[in-house]
Amino acid sequence: MLNKIYDWIDERLDITPLWRDVADHEVPEHVNPAHHFSAFVYCFGGLTFFVVIIQVLSGMFLTMYYVPDITRAWESVYYFQNNVAYGAIVRGMHHWGASIVIVMMFLHTLRVFFQGAYKKPRELNWIVGVLIFFIMLALGLTGYLLPWDMKALFATRVTLDIVQSTPLIGDLLMKLIAGDEYVVGAQTLTRFFAIHVFFLPAALLGLIGLHFLMIRKQGISGPL
Amino acid sequence: MSEKQQVTRRQFLTYTLMGVGGFMAAGTVMPMLRMAIDPVLQVKAEGDFIATGVKVDELTNEPKRVDYQFEQQDGWYKSTVTQTAWVYKEGDEIIAMSPICKHLGCNVNWNSNPNFPNRFYCPCHGGLYDKDGTNDPKTPPRGPLDRYDYEVKDGILYLSKRAKARGGA
Q1: ipTM (interface pTM)
Q2: Which of A:52-81 have CB within 8 Å of B?
Q3: DSSP string of A145-195?
Q4: Lowest mean pLDDT among A63-72, A75-84, A129-138, B61-70
Q5: Interface contact flag, A79 B75, Cβ < 8 Å
Q6: Whole-prediction pTM value?
Q7: Quick one: pLDDT at residue B155?
């Protein structure tokens, strides 16, 4: 049945070469944990991507219940945390996933660093990776404010104080990021929300696409 | 025995990987879907009658506008809703109608247009209804006005929160 549907589509669109080019290639021996168990270190990049997928999915579902407004944000979070079936689970996935994604990404970075896999000709991919790292940190920072509880507010207060202490352009930066020179409030919350759910994920997906494209083009780095 | 169909190594790996992968995907997505469809599955306590503060003795056979209020819980948002009913007495029976026009949902008024005395008139597209809510077939509305359920306690009129549709005229 499924095979027939596949054949029907393939006959018309010739999709086999498309997915073969992406997915159908041998895993080199030095990357395969079945040959050398220590090769599990090559899994961290894939695990990071896996957690990113979970973050995107759970985040999409959380916005069904969340409102980015100072009078209602906390109540809406309280509502789906306590009164919606599996609300606590989905929020839990997003909450813990946020930390796990940073950990996995850090391990992946360490692997690439200590194996010297960033060296020529893969410098560009290292640069894109570092950009992804920054995007992830920014996602963590902006997402932290959204529950709009005391921890969220004061953590963001601290961050914004650091921003404001930038020489010369500190006040400008503060106004740009928080929406106001002094108040961490209504405008800050909507800004952080928009950045968290639209701007950063869009940038992230673009960069991840580049990251993968370069791996396919250059292949994985050789054994040590 | 050798005729038994062998499971090849490739098949075994395919089934195992698909099985484990499917299990992981389902475990990830299931909570999210359950959360998304929660409004459909939540059981709400319906059928409460709301005291309107109107004494049944004061009702006549002339439709009277009755405004009544109740607390509405909408997810994390709680508010007081004011709702309107057109109420009159027909013998022992009380008729309580929703003011929502069955054409496009404007509010109808009793006896408000001099050209159409003693009828419900909708200002949006000229919909007309008789006193009992039956729609005039020559005007846009395609059904009679909805009716509230009612209850009388201690001589006070109680109305339901939601009006129910009646059969067409």
Answers
A1: 0.84
A2: 54, 57-58, 61, 64-65, 72, 75-76, 78-80
A3: HTT-SHHHHHHHHHHHHHHHTSTTTHHHHHHHHHSSSS--SHHHHHHHHHI
A4: B61-70
A5: yes
A6: 0.84
A7: 87
